[in-house]
Amino acid sequence: PRPADRAGDTGSTLVTGIGSLVTNDPEAGSGGPLGLLADAAVVLEAGRIAWVGPAAAAPTGADRVFDAAGRAVLPGFVDSHSHLVFAGDRTAEFNARMSGTAYTAGGIRTTVAATRAATDQALDANVARYVAEALRQGTTVLECKSGYGLTVEDEARALRIAGRHTDETTYLGAHVVAPEYADDPAGYVDLVTGPMLDACAPHARWVDVFCERGAFDGDQARAVLTAGARRGLTPRVHANQLTEGPGVRLAVELGAASADHCTHLSDADVAALADAAGTTVATLLPGAEFSTRAAYPDARRLLDAGATVALSTDCNPGSSFTTSVPFCIAVAVREMGMTPDEALWSATAGGAAALRRTDVGRVAVGARADLVLLDAPSHVHLAYRPGVPLVAGVWSAGRRVV
Ligand code: NIG
Ligand code: FE
């Protein structure tokens, strides 16, 4: 067999010599939910995992062999929350914040103006750039929202562009009330649930709403989510980010796939998320608290109550301008009470659960062959060595892409 190379996307690949393999299949190995295997091998074929087990028992005859030389291999990261269709940046706002100005989400309108003014090509190039950046850091599945257009045409355009880069597209026409409707928020909700939804539904899998003071209240959020659901879009909610509010309970009541942020939670919110652990994932986005200098969500409280927790980047130019899941893992471990094992699970299997995907987020026969090779002996180093570019290789659907 010839050594694995980047062009090799046909035939089968044996990845062997894996010092520590995270499978997220508790039956397959030790370490509880992570299903850890030492001295492991994986066979990738036709874009899927064809075999997983001890290296000593690996089948022979693969078209190429890659020797991990004792390093760690994990499922590709599943980033279930990002806002990548935008133009411009908000450096000045970030600078002001780091001098003491509070984050209010009012800056969304700055990005809306820049995004509306951008060409399709410029927006597409931006998304491509950030998707590639994420891939280099191990993200093999990435959800992407609209929400910086806020007109029928600009929201539909954002989703068309997002759809060229991912199947996980989310209609977020209800990000904030469009400036043209500042005096008529009810009129804007009618637009979002009417003509804008008509134009966007064909290009989206999910519907989202920013349920927050200054954005949309519980009744408006319910109208947006139920209208989307009637058009076949499954709800997910920006909930309880800046203040306690009705977002989390609404997400659970409507069977949303995810309640995202979950920074300000009452005991009742935590209990609701725990009861809904099989339906509604609590998606934590520590990049947002990092970049807005706010208190982090309490992952420990959610995990101890029994909620399903995902970790994602929330990449956007305002509150969290990072594509790095490894960064989010390190922060979640240092600041949010997560163990390195929990954080790794949340960034892979947790993200998959938040997207209702069973084909990604794990290394098991039949799953998509999305793997990350770390220049480290175990996944723990992602938190132990913060800020170090440890991702040394990425396979996406069986193909070596990094
Ligand atoms: O998830 N909270 C709403 N939306 C984004 C922030 C958007 C922005 O500031 O541009 C978020 O944090
Ligand atoms: Fe967000």
UniProtKB/TrEMBL annotation:
Residues 259-383 form the Amidohydrolase-related domain. Binds 1 zinc or iron ion per subunit. Its cofactor is Zn(2+); Fe(3+). GO terms for molecular function: imidazolonepropionase activity. 4-imidazolone-5-propanoate binds at residues 90, 148, 175, 241, 319. It is found in: Cytoplasm. PANTHER family: IMIDAZOLONEPROPIONASE, IMIDAZOLONEPROPIONASE-RELATED. NCBIfam families: hutI. HAMAP family: HutI. This is Imidazolonepropionase.
